[in-house]
Amino acid sequence: MEFTVKVNGERWDIDAAPADVLLDVLREKIGVKSPKIGCERGDCGSCTILLDGKTVRSCLVLAVEVDGQEITTVEGIGYEGLSQLQDLFISNNAFQCGFCAPAIVLSATELLDSNPNPTRHDVQEALAGNLCRCTGYEPIIEAVLAAAEGGAK
Amino acid sequence: MTTTFPFEAETDSDQLKTVGTGAVRIDGVDKISGAAEFVDDIDFGPGLLHAAIVESPHAYARIVSIDTTEAEEAKGVVRVVTGEDFPYKFGMYMEDRYIFAQDHVRFVGEQVAGVIARSHRQAVQAAKLIKVEYEVLEPLLDPKSAVAEDANLIHPDLDDYAHVPWFFPKADTNIAHWRKIRKGDTEKAFAEADFVLEDTYTVPRYAHCAIEPHVTVSRLDHADRLTVWTASQSPHTQRHLFAEALAPLGFTHKDVRVITPYVGGGFGGKAGVSMEILGAAMATLVKGRPVKLRFTREQEFYNTYQRQGVVAELKVGVMNDGTITAVDHKLFWDAGAYVEYGANVVNAAGLSATGPYRVPNISNDSLCIYTNLPPGGPYRGFGYSEFHFGLESHMDRIAEAIGMDPVDFRRKNAIQEGDELSYGAHMNPSGMIEAIDKVAAAIEWGVEEETDNPNTVMSKGIACFWKAPAMPPNASSASFLKFNEDGSLNITVSGMELGQGYLTVMAQIASEILTVPVEKIRVETPDTDRNPYEWQTVASHVTWSSGLAVEKAAIEARAKIFDVIHQVYGFEDESLYLENEAVRCSTDPEFVKPLRDFVIDGIQTEEGTWRGGPIIASGKFMPEFTNANSDPETGQGGHPNVHYTVGCTGVVTEIDRDTGRVWVRKAALAVDAGRAINPDLVKGQIVGGLVQGLATVLYEDMRFDEDGKLLNPNFTDYKIPTAFDIPDEVVPIIVEVPQPDGPFGARGVGEHTMIAAAPVIANAVYNAFGTRIKSMPVTQEKIAMALLEKGSG
């Protein structure tokens, strides 16, 4: 099946099987590698992308479903230089191994887009679908709150 | 009394510029921009093949036959593999595993056969077509029944297995290793003690749950060179074990190359060799084609390593003044079907099962017991988290029984520099008491907390910890260093950046000595063909060991720099020093020679010739004072551990009387880092490790059915913490009593931060309700049931 999708601002015309999963198509046919394969059942959140600005788990989406939509990954967020949020992730040591970091940046970006002044609880809620085994989350929450304070988008 | 160290590292603390600062991670932009490449992200082109594994549905069975006919004919299949293709053993410390099962399977999930196909989907489909006939045998699923007199033997050939000299397997039993410590006279000490407490504690199995699954791509090229890209903590150890196991196929070390890009979390689960050898072996049968094997999340749970379970029988004797006089600790480890790595966890625990206390009379028995559950192995804490649960629960109980405050009791017995360890060597400098005091102050020990909620109770808990790196006595690290034209540096090492910040810390050490800023230093992940040797990134030892190798390389580079200056300008080496990327001279304040001017091209002399050339250096470190030889019956005589890192954890909890739910309102954790090369990264280890530890006590738990099948191999049923499941506040405390042989006084902290998390919660629960829970995890359900029982009793 053929469909068209915009990925980080670029148009792609893709031919995929009806059963192909969006995560696999992004990684194997489009070559965007920041959405990661962690559990393939929607538990870990490592495959999170922004689909028309909303976070979705790309392991739970069939590729053909995104026809005509727009996808953003962390490669797109930082294309013109790292966002303030990304800078704050670095200065707060808000990641360690870095495997879950691209997905977490997207979840936090979505939060700040819809709620510029989140509480600690709001941040926890926005990130609750992204598992991180390294940091204990505290520095991530602090980075997101600092970004909100700095008026980051 | 104390060990003399042959290499005294540079520890001049007053002048430090980079060491001790929170330098920005050098892998930061890579990881936050999406640039960081993990194994699964590397493109191998259209030739890439995919592997799937056929696994045993039985915990213990004899393989009667394997029929691969249908699978071989399935669409896309390139090759089907069984144990017959690779009748070779392997193992880290004991060779008790085959690459694929031979005549028996010993746990549910064990690899019996494999399929290589053109797509992942085709491989998985074809694997389902392989028919294996089994004769099912009675499995042994807990360590106590496996050591019963009439128990079946899981490894009847145990006596023939090759193993390291510090293991003591017991032939014709299921005991693969028995670490004994006998020191002083425990019998007499217990008889003379004012109070003796004896009890049993149990700890189940746990899963590492790194978010990146194990993945490996292997390729035997047309020149017969085997390259393996792997998500691993142990590139050189993997190369060594691949080369040894596959030697019958003609491989030597030169023919095997392991490349390890960034790793998405390890926690011990990616140490040694587990599934990687399947991919490496399978690739040898499809020359020229790369083969990818990526484990599913389910396979991650049941066929990599698991943290071992343990039944701990503990007896401690004290005098009325609070002096501990004797410890008898019997640890029955559920080590699983293969113990090639896990047996050393058992060994490490046995050496240190007194905890961080001065104990004159010791009897430790740490038994590595085969069971028909998945192989145990290394997990952050390496046996110490497991035995500290009982030990630190016990310490609180004894303190209460003799009417002493648990903080005072621990202070009184806290191990100090020079104290004799269980195996006869002596304790390194240690900030144990400082750690206890700082944690007690941070949680306001002794001050009662109040809550407005009538359904909850506030309480506090405290627990101490210690741990030594568990390594072969000759585990080594090495480094290469080279300057570039602009005075920037490339350093190659083979420790792994697992997230802890290792690459940054190595850059900081070199920066401190050579005055080159951290942002001008590149340290990259290993390739065994190019990077010098590192044993493994485990045991919390790379800051110390690899750090020393980098320090030595930097010192060697500095000596070469001074030598060039001496040759050209005649200044004595002793008068030269580095400052802001330039050579300066104490006898000629006007002299300034920037490094970028000569570290590649050298310096022209007055007559027009040149001196110097590219500055390159190397460094290596091996702990030459260690020794694993000891009496098998007493454990005395060796010096198996290089040093211990100590610390203390405290919590303020709020617990619901009706539901048993525990909220950690505040946690404080002090760890003696010797010197924190990068305090921000140490704090990262404190917060992350503590949360991982709290999860093991509050809710994580591997559940098996009566046939030995894991019931919760996914994140829906095996919950790990989310952003909601963390303490309201964590106070990270860094104690710095320098390690004499550490780089700038540093020692490791990575594993230690999770070790006391379990007992500190058990102690807080007791302090809230007077209810002592002696089996992990201390779940909401267990607390609620205990309270219910107590109320009705």
**Could you name the CATH topology of the largest domain in chain A?**
Ubiquitin-like (UB roll)
CATH architecture of the largest domain in chain B: 2-Layer Sandwich
Give the second-level CATH assignment, the architecture of the largest domain in chain A: Roll
CATH superfamily of the largest domain in chain A: Beta-grasp domain
CATH superfamily of the largest domain in chain B: Aldehyde oxidase/xanthine dehydrogenase, molybdopterin binding domain
User: How many separate structural domains of chain A?
Assistant: 2
Shape of chain B: globular
Which stretches of chain B are low in confidence, meaning pLDDT under 50 for 5 or more residues running?
A: none
What is the fold-level CATH name, i.e. the topology of the largest domain in chain B? Aldehyde Oxidoreductase, domain 4
> What would you call the shape of chain A?
globular
> Got a strand count of chain A?
5
What is the chain-wise order of helices and strands of chain A?
Answer: EEHEEEHHHHH
Low-confidence spans of chain A: none
- The portion of residues forming beta strands of chain A comes to 15-25%
Strand order of the largest sheet of chain B: 3-7-1-14-11-12-13
- Mean pLDDT of chain A, to the nearest integer, reads 97
Using the coordinates above, name the CATH class of the largest domain in chain B. Answer: Alpha Beta
| CATH class value of the largest domain in chain A | Alpha Beta
How many helix segments of chain B? Answer: 17
Mean pLDDT of chain B: 97
Features:
heterodimer, A: 153 residues, alpha+beta, Ubiquitin-like (UB roll), DNA polymerase, domain 1, 6 helices, 5 strands, 36% helix, B: 793 residues, Aldehyde Oxidoreductase, domain 4, Aldehyde Oxidoreductase, domain 3, 5-stranded mixed beta sheet, 17 helices, 23% strand
